[in-house]
Amino acid sequence: MPEKVRLAKFIAHAGVCSRKQASRLIDQGEVTVNGRAANHIDHVDEHDDVIVLGEKILAKAPLTYFAYHKPVGIDCKLNADDPTSLIHSLPKTTRVYPIGRLDKDSRGLLILTNDGEFCNQLIHPDYHQPKRYLVTVDKSLDSDFCKKMAGGVPVDKQITLPCTVTQVSETQFCIVLKQGLNRQIRKMARFCGYKVIDLYRTDIAKLSLTTLNLPEGQIVSIKKSDIL
């Protein structure tokens, strides 16, 4: 007899979304268990009737992984009613979701998966997986910019963790982050007196767009071992 697991974990393992997103859906009343509103403390297995967003969750889905070269203008929120939503670019054969997000004005590498546990390994601060960005700003960088950014600056009432920042050209720098606050790089640059005009994520952990040679707007199947 299968062991019952926490509801959010069950939903993540079914490939619907991450555990964090599953918890949010439970809070929003979008999940039922055996005909009643779900609770976070519910433990379920494949014999329970679990409905998420009106759709019954069946057996554990095969785990799949994709790399996507996101263009500017694509919104990472999975909203079917929004023509700019990432949902319209996802594979039709299986339900996947992005690990971490790029804002609509940013471009570059996204990892898409239905592996909730792996998602947690990539985005949870305990694991500190590096993400590399190439950033262009609106004016010439001063001599103290990289040192100031690397040492940590105030963002959302906290000081950002130390990171690696290297100047690439007069108005461009490379930054490697191991945390992911909301619009972090844009806010860090703004604190230092600069406006980001292009933000391009090139690498997540050991996966790189350069190695993939993936054109903008394209998606490709990858292996979990390609990432970590």
TrEMBL record:
<dbReference type="Pfam" id="PF00849">
    <property type="entry name" value="PseudoU_synth_2"/>
</dbReference>
<keyword id="KW-0694">RNA-binding</keyword>
<protein>
    <recommendedName>
        <fullName>Pseudouridine synthase</fullName>
        <ecNumber>5.4.99.-</ecNumber>
    </recommendedName>
</protein>
<comment type="similarity">
    <text>Belongs to the pseudouridine synthase RsuA family.</text>
</comment>
<feature type="domain" description="RNA-binding S4">
    <location>
        <begin position="5"/>
        <end position="64"/>
    </location>
</feature>
<dbReference type="InterPro" id="IPR002942">
    <property type="entry name" value="S4_RNA-bd"/>
</dbReference>
<keyword id="KW-0413">Isomerase</keyword>
<dbReference type="InterPro" id="IPR020103">
    <property type="entry name" value="PsdUridine_synth_cat_dom_sf"/>
</dbReference>
<dbReference type="InterPro" id="IPR018496">
    <property type="entry name" value="PsdUridine_synth_RsuA/RluB_CS"/>
</dbReference>
<dbReference type="InterPro" id="IPR006145">
    <property type="entry name" value="PsdUridine_synth_RsuA/RluA"/>
</dbReference>
<dbReference type="Pfam" id="PF01479">
    <property type="entry name" value="S4"/>
</dbReference>
<dbReference type="InterPro" id="IPR020094">
    <property type="entry name" value="TruA/RsuA/RluB/E/F_N"/>
</dbReference>
<dbReference type="InterPro" id="IPR042092">
    <property type="entry name" value="PsdUridine_s_RsuA/RluB/E/F_cat"/>
</dbReference>
<dbReference type="InterPro" id="IPR050343">
    <property type="entry name" value="RsuA_PseudoU_synthase"/>
</dbReference>
<dbReference type="InterPro" id="IPR000748">
    <property type="entry name" value="PsdUridine_synth_RsuA/RluB/E/F"/>
</dbReference>
<dbReference type="InterPro" id="IPR036986">
    <property type="entry name" value="S4_RNA-bd_sf"/>
</dbReference>
